[in-house]
Design brief:
With 951 residues, the protein is of the alpha/beta class. It has 43 helices and 16 strands. The strands form five sheets. It has a five-stranded parallel sheet with strand order 9-10-11-8-12, sandwiched between helices. Strands 3-2-1-7 form a four-stranded mixed sheet, with no helix packed on it. The chain has a three-stranded antiparallel sheet with strand order 4-6-5. The longest helix is centred in the first third of the chain and has 27 residues.
């Protein structure tokens, strides 16, 4: 028998519903019978009460039960007696022993699109049966959501450059079927834009717009219109790509669209997440060119854009990238007539007022940069392009991370590039930011073979008719854009185009074969420099006339091996590709490298001695290290580190303690400081090398201060004692004095007053024997001795010492900052002495005088100390309003400096004020906060201060 049906009973629920019995369509006597059958097809079995509640909810119970019996009878009459089974008096079950096929049971996520015939029970309604309609609408909505999701997944699953016709056709089909879900249209538009089909995306929008206006008299949603404008704007910007730059940029349309669309997103838009990007990939994959392309696309936007390219020599040197970026910010300010403090001065200032800045490594620097940017550029966002961040030092990396955590949700955006073989620093940078939705990592892949063919077609390389050669070039270059493009250029010039190998060195060798001897020598010299260089720097080795240099440089520029750019009014030359520079450098004999590096190191050393620029200092270190001069290399490494560890020698050790609890920033821990590694490295050198003694002395001193202030006082003391021993060995007067000061601070931090007094007297005896005397240093020691007397309760003796120091400074002719800071400190400690004696009026006078003299020289932490003491005095004098005002100023300063000690002191001030105002509960709470912090710090200095305030 010719059977023309697959199943005895075939049920179609999607689209216009219907039932076939042995291939013939059947009809039910009325809609509720048909509706009950469809309900059973979906649920397989239902209770009688469930059926009644869906189809006969408006009827009485008896009538409803009768109607249900009639409906069951009619279903059996149409489809057979055994189509339904009744279990007891409760359940009605669809008999799956019958050969029944229901379309929705075959629908899976994989075949949903192909199986879709329309909406669930389309155009089927049961009159005046709202419960059934509610159920059907729920099923309809859920299945439609699944369909839309499947369509989205298929659309999103299309690879870049593939399935574009499907995307275009999908847009047309959706409009033909009157699908009004604009989110789906937006997805299609985005995918087409990511593939570079901007016109197709714009055509879908126009079709949607026409449909909405004609059928529902509406316009597209605002989000859809914004997407259209974004795509149109991107299309127009790409049109303006300057061809005269001589660079060819291919593909990456999906990445360009993703980054550009998010960078251009307004603060309220849905695409606000991930507005900073980290582009990663192998060397030569095109990261730098992609950064340049993005920069050109947004160059006339409202962003304040600054760029920086890191280099290998910066890896072990603190904050070099930020020094360069800040210099550009400074240049922008001057160019636009902004009368502001130079940001490079903020970074590089090394005077005594920067005690907290240098004492806490990168925390205060982060705050300084944050305040600077938000203060002067609050109406415009900052956009930073930073290339090769794998060469960025760890402190700069942490600074960038902290800025993104604080400003990365709208105030500042970063587009950075890094090699794919990232280390721990890169991972520590990116993982927390990606987890917070601030940063998105984009991996740049080499060209596919299809993309390589498109490149050949667009560049008119003329080898598409030779597919074997195309595949050979692709295989030898492994799709790396740099080497692939280099190979095409060689083929175009017919310079051994067929002699490619799959090793990058051969590609570079092929590029260099045609160069003259003088041109090769020029490349050798330029490769010595890790950064673009001027003719003057090149001439330190060659010693040629300028015209001769230009005659050698011009062919290298024409062949696009070197490039030139104008920096601060002077032309700089560098390799167009870093890989070529590295290759040329690696081919140089070691003897020649040593000679070249030594020449350049001495030149930069002279420049550094003249200008004291840290950027130049980093170059001195690099070149001395490369030529093997260990002494000079270590000397300038220590000099470089001193710029970031130098703090004032004032008597506020409590402020340094904050670093212990500020290392954990936004979820990840700061690493061990590089200073420790340098110290260990220098200790391993032969002790017999007397030239290394001053370097060892300086390193032990820096390490001692570092340990004493941020980790372990007792270990720090050992380093200081070693530095003092070395300083005496070479009779270095300044470092003998510096080390004595550190030992004095150690005595105070650990509560060893007798030790502290002994060191002071020893230092005084040493100073008397010195040829050179500095008044502020002598007065500093007198003040320290006064503090010792005050701690022993000898207040009158302490007052005499403080007054002696004040009188000597008052009568001095020199009124420099150092003198005024010391004079302010003397008045302050005299005020503390009066506080201990509860002489509030006299204490108030001294503290006011201290603030008048030194306020403008104070950084935030020092100012907090003065303000908190002033608050205490005013509270004791009954001026609660004034006490409150100074307490808030102190809290603000301490929070800005990150000082837990200061916050504890402020809490105790607030406790005293609250108790004086009759608020004992608030006073108790503030005391508990102060006590908790004191226990956390476990500092005898802090316990003594808090005890003094409570009395």
């Amino acid at each position: 028998m010719d059977r023309r049906y697959s199943h005895d009973i075939e049920v179609q629920l999607m689209g216009r519903p219907g039932v076939l019995l042995f291939g013939e369509k059947v009809s039910f006597p009325y809609q509720k019978v048909e509706g009950l059958f469809y309900y059973l097809c979906v649920n397989s079995q239902i209770s009688r009460s469930q059926a009644i509640s869906v189809l006969w909810a408006e009827s009485s119970e008896s009538i409803a039960r009768k109607n249900l019996r009639d409906a069951v009878y009619n279903i059996r009459k149409v489809l057979g007696q055994d189509i339904l089974t009744v279990e007891g008096n409760t359940l009605i079950v669809l008999n799956r022993q019958r050969d029944i096929d229901i379309d929705i049971e075959h629908i899976t996520r994989e075949n949903l699109l192909e199986s879709w015939k329309g909406e669930f029970l389309q155009f089927f309604f049961v009159k005046n049966c709202y419960e059934f309609e509610a159920w059907a609408e729920g099923e309809r909505s859920e299945r439609k959501r699944s369909y839309i999701k499947a369509l989205q997944l298929k659309i999103m699953g299309q690879k870049i450059g593939q399935g574009l016709e499907f995307l275009e056709e999908s847009g047309r089909i959706l409009i033909q079927n009157e699908v009004l879900d604009e989110e789906l249209y937006r997805i299609i538009m985005k995918k087409l834009a990511e593939a570079g089909r901007y016109l197709s995306a714009m055509e879908i929008f126009q079709s949607l717009k026409t449909f909405l206006e004609k059928e529902v008299e509406e316009t597209p949603e605002e989000e859809t219109q914004k997407l259209y404008e974004k795509i149109s704007d991107m299309k127009n910007r790409l049109k303006r790509r300057p061809k005269e730059r001589g660079e060819y940029f291919f593909g990456r349309t999906d990445i360009l669209y993703d980054i550009y669309s998010r960078i251009g997103t307004r603060d309220g838009d849905m695409e606000r997440r991930y507005r900073s990007f980290l582009i990663t990939g192998e060397p030569g994959v095109g990261k730098s060119m992609l950064l340049e392309q993005i920069g050109r696309m947004v160059e006339d936007s409202d962003y304040l854009m600054f760029t920086w390219a890191c280099c290998e020599t910066e890896k072990d040197l603190y904050l070099m990238p930020w020094h360069g970026i800040m210099a550009k910010v400074d240049e922008y300010c001057k160019k636009n007539g902004l009368d502001v403090e130079s940001p490079t001065d903020i970074l590089l200032r090394q005077n005594a007022s920067d005690v907290q800045f240098f004492m806490t490594r990168f925390e205060i620097l982060t705050e300084s940069v944050f305040r600077y940017l938000t203060k002067y550029f609050r109406d415009r966002k900052i956009l930073l392009f930073i290339d090769d961040i794998q060469w960025m030092d760890s402190m700069s990396m942490r600074l960038m991370s902290n800025l993104l955590f604080r400003m990365g949700q709208g105030q500042m955006l970063v587009v950075a590039a890094s090699r794919e073989d990232d280390g721990d620093d890169i991972k520590s940078f990116k993982i927390p930011l990606i987890g917070r939705g601030i940063l998105k990592e984009i991996e740049l892949k080499p060209f596919t073979l299809e993309e390589a063919r498109q490149v050949i077609e667009e560049t008119d390389a003329g080898i598409l008719d030779n597919p074997r050669l195309v595949e050979q070039i692709y295989k030898k270059t492994q799709g790396n854009p740099l080497f692939f493009m280099e190979s095409l250029r060689l083929y175009e010039r017919k310079e051994n185009g067929a002699a490619f190998t799959d090793r990058m060195s051969n590609v570079i060798q092929s590029r260099l074969l045609s160069l003259s001897r003088r041109e090769r020598v020029m490349l050798d010299i330029v490769s010595i420099f890790s950064l673009p260089v001027t003719k003057g720097e090149i001439n330190q080795i060659l010693g040629m006339e300028e015209l001769q240099l230009l005659q050698i440089l011009e062919p290298l520029l024409d062949k696009k091996i070197l490039y030139e750019k104008l920096v601060s009014g002077e032309v700089h030359y560098g390799f167009r590709h870093q890989i070529i520079r590295e290759y040329v450098y690696s081919c140089l004999p070691k003897e020649k490298k040593d000679i070249y590096h030594n020449y350049i190191a001495r030149y930069y050393e002279q420049e550094y001695q003249r200008h004291r620029n840290l950027g130049t200092c980093s170059l001195v270190i690099h070149h001395y290290e490369q030529c093997g001069d260990r002494y000079k290399m270590y000397w300038y490494k220590v000099e470089y580190l001193e710029a970031f560890y130098r703090i004032s020698y004032d008597f506020y050790p409590m402020l340094a303690r904050k670093a212990v609890f500020s290392g954990n920033i936004d979820g990840f821990l700061a690493k061990e400081d590089e200073l420790v590694e340098l110290a260990e490295e220098i200790r391993l050198l032969q002790e017999t090398d007397s030239r290394m003694t001053p370097i060892r002395m300086r390193v032990e001193y820096l390490l001692g201060r570092y340990e004493m202030f941020v980790r372990d006082c007792h270990r720090g003391k050992k380093y200081i004692e070693k530095s003092l021993e070395l300083a005496k060995e070479i009779s270095d007067r300044n470092y003998i004095f510096y080390n004595y000061l550190q030992l004095i601070l150690y005595g105070d931090l650990t509560g060893q007053n007798a030790f502290m007094q002994n060191v002071i007297e020893t230092c005084m005896a040493f100073m008397r024997d010195c040829t050179h005397h500095h008044l502020e240093e002598e007065c500093m020691l007198i003040r320290y001795l006064g503090i010792c007397m005050m701690k022993d309760g000898e207040y009158q003796q302490a007052e005499k010492l403080f007054m002696e120091a004040v009188k000597r400074l008052d009568h001095a002719d020199d009124r420099t900052e150092h003198y005024r800071r010391e004079l302010s400190a003397c008045h302050h400690h005299m005020g503390i002495c009066y506080i201990r004696q509860k002489k509030w009026d006299m204490a108030s006078g001294c503290l006011k005088r201290a603030v008048e003299i030194g306020e403008k020289y104070m950084v935030s932490g020092e100012a907090g100390v003065f303000y908190s003491d002033m608050s205490l005095v005013l509270c004791r004098m009954g001026d609660l309003k004034g006490a409150n005002a100074f307490a808030e100023k102190a809290r603000s300063c301490f929070m800005q400096a990150g000082s837990l000690w200061g916050e504890a002191k402020t809490d105790l001030c607030c406790a005293l004020i609250a108790e004086a105002e009759g608020r004992p509960e608030e006073g108790k709470r503030c005391r508990e906060l102060a006590d908790r912090t004191a226990k956390k710090l476990d500092s005898s200095f802090l316990w003594e201060e808090l005890k003094m305030m409570e009395n």
